[in-house]
């Protein structure tokens, strides 16, 4: 019985934690809930020195109290970080804290975030395979041949499995959208990016590198590309003759969803009444209180019954 009560209370606590993870925007129509399977935070590794949800490859180094370093500031390095399970959510938001830094005046080449059909295949596109199928977000720190564009440059490319990334022109003809991000390397504040996707509505990339808490819009399109329904989340980086440290500090993925708009009420009917956040929170709190009272009542009855049986058994002995 005690085990049952403990399990029930644990389940109740987990439900409360999940409820607390749900967030709502200012308009009150988009909510998010954390995706543990695609999030990664310190110390990154489990007790057996493995990650339950991610694989590490290549030259990747893990400092459990600081970072996941995809490449160190050394030539000819290649590192990767890939989710073990695919991201199947239709609408999502991925927020990543990262750091690009090094000791050299000339540096390269950059790192990338991926949502692709395949995973863990090394190649020439920032450490990942060419002719990929899915979405790539490239943080390109070295300018090969792209006149009129300030580097570092951040761009998105949608791969169809056949189109090759042209490294010589820094992907100019393969670009879906992008922006210059001068100052994103060696920034004075934690550098982050936030990629949001809502099917058939928008794809948006925001950057934080100028001031903490200030998000700069890199690009937004109301015609989001088609992303494979089963896509793995990954991060890769590479260095050539030039090098840099490319660190991933944290990954926080969320599932986005909309709440149904209130229906129109007709005179005299109680339907279509708008439920406020306070009412929703109150209902949830009252449910928790009632549930706790129920389990305490059951526990009290069990303790009383056990005491009564013990007393009866003792009286029968005499």
TrEMBL record:
One example GO MF annotation: D-mannose binding
Natural source organism: Pseudoneurospora amorphoporcata
Keyword Transmembrane helix carried by entry: yes
GO cellular component, one term: COPII-coated ER to Golgi transport vesicle
Keywords, alphabetical: Membrane, Signal, Transmembrane, Transmembrane helix
Primary location: membrane
Protein name: Concanavalin A-like lectin/glucanase domain-containing protein
Keyword Phosphoprotein part of the UniProt annotation: no
Cellular localisation: Membrane
UniProt signal peptide: 1-20
SUPFAM superfamilies the UniProt entry points to: Concanavalin A-like lectins/glucanases
């Amino acid at each position: 019985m005690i085990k049952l009560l403990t399990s029930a209370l644990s389940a109740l606590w987990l439900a409360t934690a999940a409820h607390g993870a749900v967030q709502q925007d200012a308009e009150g129509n988009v909510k998010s809930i954390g995706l543990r399977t695609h999030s990664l935070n310190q110390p990154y590794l489990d007790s057996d020195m493995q990650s339950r949800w991610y694989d590490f490859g290549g030259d990747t180094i893990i400092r459990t109290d600081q970072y996941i370093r995809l490449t160190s500031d050394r030539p000819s390095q290649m590192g990767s970080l890939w989710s073990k399970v695919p991201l199947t959510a239709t609408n999502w938001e991925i927020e990543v804290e990262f750091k690009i830094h090094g000791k050299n005046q000339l540096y390269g080449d950059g790192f990338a975030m991926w949502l692709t059909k395949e995973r863990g295949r090394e190649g020439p596109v920032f450490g990942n395979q060419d002719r990929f199928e899915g979405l790539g977000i490239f943080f390109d720190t070295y300018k090969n041949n792209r006149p009129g564009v300030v580097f570092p440059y951040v761009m998105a490319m949608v791969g169809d499995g056949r189109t090759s990334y042209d490294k010589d022109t820094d992907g100019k003809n393969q670009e879906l959208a992008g922006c210059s991000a001068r100052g994103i390397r060696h920034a004075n504040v934690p550098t982050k990016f936030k990629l949001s996707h809502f099917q058939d509505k928008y794809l948006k990339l925001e950057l934080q590198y100028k001031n903490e808490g200030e998000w700069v819009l890199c690009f937004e399109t109301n015609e989001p590309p088609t992303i494979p329904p089963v896509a793995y989340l990954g991060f890769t980086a590479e260095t050539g003759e030039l090098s840099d440290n490319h660190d991933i500090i944290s990954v926080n993925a969320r599932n986005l969803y909309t709440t149904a708009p209130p229906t129109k009420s007709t005179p005299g009917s109680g339907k279509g009444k708008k439920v406020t956040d306070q009412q929703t929170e109150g209902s949830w709190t009252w449910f928790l209180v009632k549930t706790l009272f129920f389990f305490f009542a059951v526990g009290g009855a069990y303790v009383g019954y056990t005491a009564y049986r013990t007393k009866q058994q003792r009286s029968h002995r005499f």
